[in-house]
Specification:
By secondary structure, the protein is of the alpha+beta class. It contains four helices and eight strands; from the N terminus they run αβαβαββαββββ. The strands form three sheets. It has a four-stranded mixed β-sheet with strand order 1-8-3-4. Strands 2-5 form a two-stranded antiparallel sheet. A two-stranded antiparallel ribbon has the order 6-7. The N and C termini lie far apart (56 Å).
Amino acid sequence: MRSLADDAALASTLANVPPSASRPVIIHEDVAVGMLIYKVNPEYPAKAKKDRISGIVILKATISKAGEISDLHAECGPEILQEPSLKAVREWKYRPYLLRGEPVEVQTTIRVTFALGGKKKLPFSKDSCPVE
């Protein structure tokens, strides 16, 4: 049988445990795309065009409760295309992700594609991230 003292101790312990929403919620990239409200396209580096470098850059992003990029790093992709990807995506804005009606910080994957060839797409460079 529990006493009032036991209940008070339990309540005190639970109050010190951070809520599960204190860590970023991981969301699928398709969900994040649906939340995107402002997008800046990356600038294709002239050297990359000249050298015919194309491909996918995969970024891991943390989106704040306000919908801004708060942390961002490149996971893979042609090195020459990573910095333009990071620079552009840092300016993106999202609708806040709501969990139980409250905005929460989220983590997601962002794919940035650099393609050459117009209508006839050329194959990606060998150091591109894998296409899934």
